[in-house]
């Protein structure tokens, strides 16, 4: 029996629809933001912006104490309420936020490009706390499957950020600092918009801090944060390596290749986001293998289209100075296909309490990427970084296969080779979605 039928096809379809809408708007706004900053800052400025954004992203993931993965499992246990867990996350996040700001102030001058030191410190004091609070609230909404709320709040923030970017470009006031300020404004709007939805989801359960809640959240975070950081470093570690070996301009070009190629991950992210809280309720007898096969099929289709249009897309949309991103994008595609399977498997495994494998497999990929980049980036620049990332992504996926086979019972042919029933499932899910939309007018 599939996970869809076991947990309600109609609800699963609605979750997928809202999650798809949220990720689609994120994709469109992300591309719009990349185009605005590419034309407003050039390759070098875009590279510096990438480095600041990456530092804040990594800090925000740590401050959020791993809630995006651990909260569904902790709520599923039923030993702590949502208010107690969110209160614990607030305490832990505040402490970690102070440490992150201290690192940015004291160590940042040594580890970052001097031109963006002041911007990095300002972002650590403003964008960083907003980012981790947004992550914590989003985690609760996702754990409660309120994907509609995530869509509307995210859309509001993205519109503000892109609109601010358009104004900055039109008035010739686009700098790395003003771009970070626009990002901060968008994140603040998203967080504020989620406030009423958070109150509704808590349902009278007030935020509170208890020793028991803090201990549980800290233990879960200690197990989850390495995997979350490893996953992010797996995506972005090579930006630091490219910055150190080739400079900010190469970072800007390679960042565009990464941004466009990661469209391949969207089907897996959509299904994985819905699958994770559901997996916490599933027994071993349930199988989500059809979802894996459908996602892989869509990913292959998107990858083929990206491979064909890459040269025209990069040159005509982002500008000739980013043309080297085109071969880099193509070289990233095989690795991202492997990462698709890893995303799905780790989301389901985390939902079933197997958090460690996410950390171990992601960190294995980080080590492989780092070693390969040291060899290839000095000689091949952006193309070398793309090859290194692809090899690292494949290593990440291979590391999780034995556990997926043992715990989930999946063989490679179960998740890769399409079956006639998969098409029937897509038709049925589409029918349910259209029926739901018609009922809502």
Describe the structure.
The model is unreliable at 1-9 and 279-286 (pLDDT under 50). The chain has helices at 3-7, 9-63, 67-77, 82-106, 108-111, 117-125, 127-143, 147-170, 176-193, 195-202, 211-246, 248-261, 266-279, 289-318, 325-351, 356-408, 412-416, 420-439. Helix 4 runs antiparallel to helix 6 and helix 12 crosses helix 14. It has one domain. With 441 residues, the chain is mainly α. The longest helix has 55 residues, at 9-63. Helices cover 85% and strands 0% of the residues.
Category from helices, strands and their pairing: mainly alpha
Shape: globular
What is the overall number of helices? 18
**Residue-averaged pLDDT, rounded?**
82
- Unreliable stretches: 1-9, 279-286
Give the helix proportion (percent range). Answer: over 70%
Rg over C-alpha atoms, rounded to the nearest angstrom: 21 Å
The major pleated sheet works out as: none
Tally of separate domains: 1
Q: What oligomeric assembly is this protein in? A: single chain
Q: DSSP strand (E) fraction?
A: under 5%
- The overall strand count is 0
Order of helices and strands: HHHHHHHHHHHHHHHHHH
Measured between the Cα atoms of the first and last residue, the distance is 32 Å
Question: Quick summary of this structure?
Answer:
With 441 residues, the chain is mostly helical.
List keywords for this structure.
18 helices, disordered N terminus, 0% strand, 441 residues, mainly alpha
